[in-house]
Design goal:
6-stranded parallel beta sheet, OB fold (Dihydrolipoamide Acetyltransferase, E2P)
């Protein structure tokens, strides 16, 4: 009599980097005969890849752990990711958690599960973050037309609000040769588009004679992939060489995501960011001067300690005047073991909410204005999924487009005329 196939379910919180790592770990399970199921289904093993950037991410992790155990009380629950590295003992107190793996150990999850006695209480396997040096390449596949390729991990920056260096360790990456091997493996999947991800991708190659600019030059010749996007890149690392190259490339899309965090130089200094607002403005101006169609997304934090009404208005007006396309707005969240926690001038939750709302409204206006510029023009759209009888996809410059089409166009690229702007999505005609 054959042994029944074990079912494993994964759930990922946080950034696209986490998604690429979860996908890589899940492929390891599938290679070893496991059946992958949805996290909402009954499984023998539940794997939760966590984030710890905000307090909400911590709370969500706790909720998901409890849900998994309710679905199958006899299941094993494994917790990996940033929350697992930062607060393993807190997680160990949650009923039902069997194993917690830190940053260095998570890619060996299957081996650890095979080696431990799940009946002997929660097992915590974690290295001190200073001892985390390994780089494990990862990419997402099989679930969508867009794949996230991890090219870098960790961060050497010391931003006063951020726990990521404590959760992921020092900046590190693989060689261009090895990265290209992984990219060619990815190109054999169904993906038509790659998004380059990392904690601080502009730092690729640090400590070697290679650079992120060298990497994108090599990736531009990758066969089997139509589109490549750069995920978030620090403004001080977004060089003219990179911008000029993207402008001339047919593969690299006219889309940049550049974190600002604050439009006040005083607050940028308190955050220990490595630039001032003038540099940020220069980067945006440079992009728009040679790639006028480019979509530019911006991260911003409201309610950082010491952010006065004047500081916030500087941020608001700065963003309002910039030729950008949308915002990702974050309310400052106190994180343990960061310098910002010890700072005075705490901003009330109400004030943070109010400022966040103002910037969300500004973002909506920016997005609508950006989309309006392309109404009655034609753009290439990579269709990704169908929803409510409409095919959805994104243009090269990251405008979400919907078309009435009964025949599936998923994973195909078509020239589409943009017609009616709804704000977040634009109607299109084939």
């Amino acid at each position: 009599m054959s042994t029944p196939t074990k079912r494993v379910a994964f759930h990922t919180l946080g950034c696209k980097l986490n998604f690429s790592e979860t996908a890589t770990i899940s492929r390891d399970f599938i290679r070893h005969g496991f059946e992958k199921v949805d996290y909402r289904d009954e499984a023998d093993i539940y794997v939760l890849n966590t984030c710890s950037v905000t307090e909400n991410a911590d709370k969500e992790a706790r909720k998901l752990i409890r849900k998994a155990k309710r679905r199958n009380p006899n299941s094993s629950v494994a917790v990996i990711g940033c929350y697992a590295q930062l607060k393993p003992n807190d997680i160990a107190e949650i009923d039902g958690v069997d194993i917690i793996l830190g940053a260095e150990e998570k890619f060996n999850l299957l081996n650890h599960l095979n080696e431990i006695d799940l009946n002997s209480g929660t097992k915590v396997i974690q290295s001190e973050i200073d001892h985390v040096h390994k780089f494990t390449p990862s990419y997402s596949s099989g679930e969508r037309t867009r794949s996230f390729l991890k090219v870098q991990d960790g961060c050497d920056y010391t931003c006063s609000f951020c726990t990521i260096p404590l959760a992921r360790g020092k900046s590190r990456s693989d060689s261009i040769e090895n990265t290209m091997k992984i990219a060619r493996e990815l190109a054999k999947t169904d993906a038509r588009e790659i998004v380059l991800t990392g904690v601080n991708i502009g730092d690729f190659g640090k400590g070697s004679d290679e650079s992120f600019f060298n990497l994108i030059q090599q990736l531009d010749s990758l066969d089997g992939i139509d589109r490549i996007r750069i995920s978030s890149i620090e403004p001080n690392l977004l060089t003219n060489d990179i911008i000029n190259f993207c402008a001339s490339s047919r593969k690299f899309m006219p889309h940049f995501h550049v974190p600002l965090q604050s439009g006040s130089d005083k607050i940028l200094g308190a955050m220990r960011r490595r630039y001032k607002r003038n540099l940020f403005e220069e980067r945006v101006t440079k992009i728009k001067s040679i790639i006028p169609d480019a979509c530019i997304g911006v991260d911003v934090i409201v309610g950082f300690p010491g952010e006065t009404d004047v500081d916030f208005l500087k941020t608001y007006n700065f963003l309002n005047d910039l030729d950008i396309s949308y915002l990702h707005v974050f309310s400052y969240s106190e994180r343990p073991n960061t310098d910002a926690v010890e700072m005075g001038g705490v901003i009330s939750k109400e004030k943070r909410t109010e400022r966040s709302k103002m910037l969300h409204i500004l973002s909506d206006k920016k997005r609508r204005y950006f989309h309006d510029k392309f109404v009655n023009t034609k753009r290439p759209v990579l269709f990704e999924n169908m929803k409510n009888g409409k095919m959805l996809g994104h243009t090269d410059n990251y405008i979400q487009v919907q078309v009435d089409e009964s025949m599936t166009l998923i994973n195909t690229i078509h020239l589409v005329k943009l017609s009616l702007n709804h704000g977040t999505v634009v109607n299109g005609e084939l």
